[in-house]
């Protein structure tokens, strides 16, 4: 299962549909808090259940960088793809990328995203 978190509802839903079209199950959320609640509710404990996350960096509340670090702590093998339209300086002002995270700039190439996800799906 792949988690998708983006506060832009249209983008999140479109990526969710695309992920399912390439044969991967996903869960779509519009905030970090929603994903955290989902993980707790369904008692997701390991990266066999959740093996990748596509996270927008500029989320309200807990931003994507912080969420990525929390996920990395709980799921050391999780593939994390951070996405953002922000410039590097703006991203640096929000924090640092989680270890071993991929960074895709919006608008990103779906072929590049598929290449990352195909290694884990």
What's the short story on this structure?
This protein has 121 residues and is of the alpha/beta class. 41% of the residues lie in helices and 19% in strands.
Question: Overview of this structure, please?
Answer:
The chain is α/β, with parallel strands linked by helices and 121 residues long. The chain has one domain (2-118): Response regulator (Rossmann fold, 3-Layer(aba) Sandwich). The chain is 41% helix and 19% strand. The chain has helices at 9-21, 32-41, 64-74, 88-94, 110-118, and strands at 2-5, 26-29, 52-56, 79-84, 102-105. The chain has a five-stranded parallel beta sheet with strand order 2-1-3-4-5, with helices on both faces. 30% of the residues are buried.
Secondary-structure-based class equals: alpha/beta
| Helical content (DSSP H or I, runs of 4+) | 40-55%
In sequence order, what are the helices and strands, one letter per element?
EHEHEHEHEH
Q: The CATH topology is what?
A: Rossmann fold
Number of helices: 5
Separation of the first and last Cα atoms: 8 Å
Top keywords for this entry?
alpha/beta; Rossmann fold; five-stranded parallel sheet; 5 helices; 5 strands; 19% strand
Secondary-structure blueprint of this entry?
Blueprint (H helix, E strand, L loop, with lengths): L1 E4 L3 H13 L4 E4 L2 H10 L10 E5 L7 H11 L4 E6 L3 H7 L7 E4 L4 H9 L3
Parallel strand pairs: 1-2, 1-3, 3-4, 4-5
